[in-house]
Amino acid sequence: LSKPTVDSVESTPDSNVFSFKRRTVAVDGPDPIDRHVGGQLRLRRAQIGMTQVDLGSKLGLSFQAVQKYENGENRVSASRLYQLARILEVSPAYFFDGLEELVGAAPAVGSAELARKEASLVLGAYYAISDPRLRAACLLIMSRMGASAEGGER
Amino acid sequence: MTVTPHSREVPALPPVACVADGGCSYLRALSTIERLAGFDQTAHSYAAAASRCQRLGCWAAEKREDADAQSDMSGVQPIALDSVRQPRNCSPTATLTGAVAPIPFIRSAMVDAVSDGNGNYVERRAVRLETLPGRSDPLGYLYEYWCGLRAETACQFSNIDPVHLMRAGVMGKLHVVDVSSSDPAEFRFDLFGYAVPLGRPERPRTLPVQIYADTTIRDYNTVRLTGVPRLQRVRARLGGTGHHYTRLILPFMDPKGGVARLLVAIRQEPGSGVKIETAN
After folding, report:
1. What burial class does residue B20 get, using C-beta atoms within 10 Å of its C-beta: 0-12 exposed, 13-18 middle, 19+ buried?
2. Any residues with CB less than 8 A from the CB of B98 and at least 6 apart, and which?
3. Interface test with chain A among B30, B77, B163, by most A beta carbons within 10 Å
4. Quick one: closest CA in B to A67, which residue?
5. Which residue, A88, A153, B128, B277, is most buried by CB atoms nearer than 10 A?
6. How distant is the Cα of B257 from the closest Cα of chain A, in angstroms?
């Protein structure tokens, strides 16, 4: 398998083959989260009366690059986000304000912790099996159980 | 513009400058422009600010209120009051007398005048774009901005930076016309300038006087077909009222390169809006 440079990984239950699906702006359009960050950037910039040209010159970029950030075509890196927050005099968290409404609330902290603990137990037990054929069999059983459970729920 | 809160009692609060001339109308116009440019989230923020203003009284005044308003405002991002003011050198009314200086133009041979039997007339004169006085004038500023967009972008409506429209000081006298239909009768106003005293027509063909509607549609269609901006001096008498303004029509493209939208900016000239006495 090639190194996954991907946004999403899908596994098929009947095999160990993982398929990778890369999201692209050209095919799928801008990522909704990137659009949200871009929208917040545009709103704040307008609030303080700063043009795209002004902001671009402060960042050392063209105004077209600022446009691409705003409409989500280009993803804002963490360092750039921090730089933008400094220039626009907001906290970095400002760019994510209202994001929960868009993508749904994050899972509660308790259940996330539980999931992490459970996952680490499963992984530990899995890699404790030294025989690779037995590991593969376990994986297959778990996959099948998961698939039948999904079918049963329907 | 100064406003006082109107739908809620705010005792001992002096009138404050609203976000700009037009207040809520200004924010709604901004919201429409952002929506047309494809920034729904930003459009929603402006619309929310405008509706809040209508619901609770002047939003700008509320910003200065104490604790109860502060708790009410939690989570709302304020719009800075100075963000939408135009720079001093861009104000068309920044003369000592308060009068608007007309844009000079070289008298053109291309005068188109039409009239009807009800005393209405429309006279349009083509004005050379080079006569615009540059960034010190609202239309000049807008034209320079458009030239920059045309040179460096695909010149689509989504390329517009609304801060430049704010700086130009044309927001209330700005129309956005959807000309994507090949039938000129189907042209539609996506935005009609709230400070233009011609009602709120949905389409150019529903403008108040038939000859005025016809000539306006013809001018819009010319820009749609040629993709070339147009500057005109318009002098009209519509229903007994004189209208005298300069009109700048700027084309914006669709992804295929055709003209999809027009940005029409109007600058009223001295004598506009005056009731004209008829001989009878």
Report:
1. buried
2. none
3. B163
4. B159
5. A88
6. 19
- A39 and B78 within 8 Å at the Cβ level: the answer is no
Q: Measure the CA–CA gap between A24 and B118, rounded to whole angstroms.
A: 61
Look up residue A50 and give its two tokens: 């700063």
Chain A CB contacts of B78 under 8 Å are 47
Contact indicator for B105, B128 with CB cutoff of 8 Å: yes
Sequence-distant (≥ 6) Cβ neighbours of residue A129 within 8 angstroms: A135, A138
CA triplet B171, B176, B177: central angle to 5 degrees?
160
CA–CA gap between residue B138 and residue A79 (Å, rounded): 38
Burial of B104 (0-12, 13-18, 19+ CB in 10 A): exposed
A19 vs B: CB within 8 A: no
Is residue B87 less than 8 Å (CB to CB) from chain A? no
Q: Give dist(CA A65, CA A69) in Å, integer.
A: 6
The predicted complex's ipTM stands at 0.72
CB B125 within 8 A of CB B233: yes
A99-147 tens-digit pLDDT:
877 766 555 555 555 566 777 788 888 888 888 888 888 888 888 888 7
User: In the 8-state DSSP scheme, what is residue B153?
Assistant: S
Residue A71: which of A116, A32, A111, A44 has the closest Cα? Answer: A32
- Per-10-residue mean pLDDT of chain B, 280 residues long, equals 36 38 80 94 87 64 43 42 40 40 58 88 91 88 94 92 91 93 94 87 92 95 95 90 92 93 91 58
What is this structure's pTM? 0.70
Beta carbons of B123 and B111 less than 8 angstroms apart:
yes
A36 has a chain B CB within 8 A of its CB: yes
Partner residue facing A64 (CB), from B75, B153, B163: B153
CA dist., res. B243 & res. B130, Å (int): 24
Distance CA A13, CA A16 (A): 8
Structure confidence at residue A1 (pLDDT): 46
- Is A39 an 8 Å CB contact of chain B? yes
Residue type, B136: S
Q: Where are the alpha helices (DSSP H) in B169-246?
A: 210-226
Residues of B in contact with A98 (CB under 8 A): 41
Q: Where are the alpha helices (DSSP H) in chain B?
A: 24-36, 40-56, 59-62, 67-72, 138-152, 162-168, 210-226
